[in-house]
Amino acid sequence: MSSDNGRKPRIAVFKFASCDGCQLSLLDAEDELLAVAGAVEIAYFPEASRRMLKGPYDIGLVEGSITTHHDAQRIQQIRRQCRTLVTIGACATAGGIQALRNWRDTGEFVRYVYARPDYIQTLNHSTPIAEHVPVDFELRGCPINKYQLIELLSATLAGRKPNIPTYSVCIECKRRGTVCVAVAQGAMCLGPVTQAGCGAICPAYGRGCYGCYGPMENPNSKRLAAHFLETGKEREQVVRAFRTYNAWAWQFREATEEREG
Amino acid sequence: MRKRARETADQGQAGAARRSLLLSPAALGELLAALLRRGYTVIAPTVRDGAICYEPVNGVEELPAGYTMELEAGSCRLKRRGDEALFGYVVGAKSLKNYLHPPERRVFAAERDNGLFRILPEQTERPRFAFLGVRPCDLAAAAIQDRVFLKDRYQDGEYRARREAAFVVAVHCTEPAATCFCASMGTGPRAKDGFDIALTEIVEPGRHLFVAEAGTAAGAELLAELNASEAPEELCRAAEEALERAASSMKRRLDGDGLRELLYERFEDPHWDDVARRCLCCANCTMVCPTCFCVTVEDTSDVTGRRAERWQRWDSCFTQNFSYIHGGSVRLSPKSRYRQWLTHKLAAWVDQFGTPGCVGCGRCISWCPVGIDITQEVAALREAARTRA
Prior knowledge:
The complex is a heterodimer of chains A (261) and B (389).
Chain A: E1 10-15, H1 21-28, H2 30-39, E2 41-44, E3 57-63, H3 69-81, E4 82-88, H4 90-94, H5 106-113, E5 137-139, H6 146-158, H7 169-176, H8 181-185, H9 201-204, H10 221-230, H11 235-242, H12 250-260
Helix pairs in contact in A: 10-12, 11-12
Chain B: H1 3-9, E1 20-23, H2 25-37, E2 41-48, E3 51-56, E4 67-72, E5 75-80, H3 97-100, E6 104-113, E7 116-120, E8 129-134, H4 136-150, H5 157-165, E9 167-171, H6 182-185, E10 197-204, E11 207-214, H7 217-224, E12 229-230, H8 233-249, H9 259-265, H10 271-278, H11 284-288, E13 295-301, E14 307-314, E15 324-325, E16 328-329, H12 334-353, H13 363-366, H14 374-387
Parallel strand pairs in B: 2-8, 8-9, 9-10
Antiparallel strand pairs in B: 1-11, 1-12, 2-3, 4-5, 6-7, 6-14, 10-11, 13-14, 15-16
Helix pairs in contact in B: 9-12, 10-12
């Protein structure tokens, strides 16, 4: 990516409803951080710097989901200011763990949690950024993988296609040489329907995949959920497995909404 | 492909004319130690993460004495045996492929150099592998990969180097798993060639022995260093009988008769839709298949734009990008991907390389998370051909 007037591309990082873990991945990229700072101008990144420059920006990284009227308007302004808009993390790409509210009465939560519910203005649903504005690239994960973030930035700067696979976690798991926890232990593993990118961490530590990277390309989530039930898992367990950080992704919803019955 | 194998192939049919030696479990330990002394990285079965895997080992005590693996469609369970057999199981998820055709490797790195593009020298020191406990199906699979990588105009130099340096100690199969069907594919339970040494394990109450035969001069030389005597006729017969029992006790079979034509004819069979409803497109079958060889090549550049790398990684026909050409992917549906895999493996492979791409190891059956069984899918297509015109 070459910027206008030959200056360095300007990057901005924005936050919506989220835990900040994904934008911290950028700060966590210790070895590459100086190189990133040398290649781009970090123009707006409140988590990292008090210097907040006005837009427009060449690349906008957006973390978090839309949960308030105010945020629904703010994302429109941000979209207008960013040449390339990239959403980072499960909140921004699927609605996040907070999308669990989408199956319940949000008003009830507000009444339980807050002393003055009338101070709280919120939407009933937590939704991904792409439901509100066009998004150029979605970087998955809860949190995102810093190496994928660096790859995405490097590719964007070079004007090439990023090497961010959309196939299953199983491919990474097998390349890594991990024994399949689903087959060898009967673990409830979402790897076969989850997008790669984490490096298949959990199975390498003897745990089934939690699905942090959301649905892969063409996931057959319904069949996997049915298989869990056929092999003795409880319905509630199966629903819970699919309802975590990417619960609101329709391909995972599809697996659980019928099950819930 | 291996000169040594060819030199000694005329020494006679396996078993009959070859000299058979008797090895004790202790002598097997000596064999492993001798391989380590020769500087090999010894890859042998060992218990890891609730399964038996082919991994680097440093001594015979790391072999899974007294363990077996019960394999079924979509299931693998590590179990204790009632004896101390060292090879009382068939195959784990990994095969020779993991070592001879590694899952990922850097092809080269390059740097910008005064407006030019300079390729950086790669480390060329490669591991020398000795494989201990290789099953006949896996030897057959290695022969198929030899055909793919080494017998056409363009050859894979990395594979060639690793393959030519490898030493192979095979173990004939006396106890097939429930997922095995090598007898119907003609690849087992006896290894015909492609080994330096082949063993048959005899575990009976009161005795635990190995009958060893050399397949190459290098194998014979190594056996000569061990404390081994000529195997008595009775023991050789017992080994033969065990192999015959293994062949006849195999429950699964894949009927290859006229299969190539049948698969081409059943291209539009509704059964493919049935498989597609069950298939997850997770690609596990292709990852564990000892003959699947597809790779993708990925180029990356760093954030400064000064350094680039090219990586080769295992790929799978079950991914969307695999069939990406200008404008999009050709095989968008899971149905088209499963059909591509099965039809290539059992039909187009024959046109391309002269044999089917399946050796009957059963890995795709046991390591499929939902237990899709290639032998059943073929049987179902046969049945469809019989009942649907």
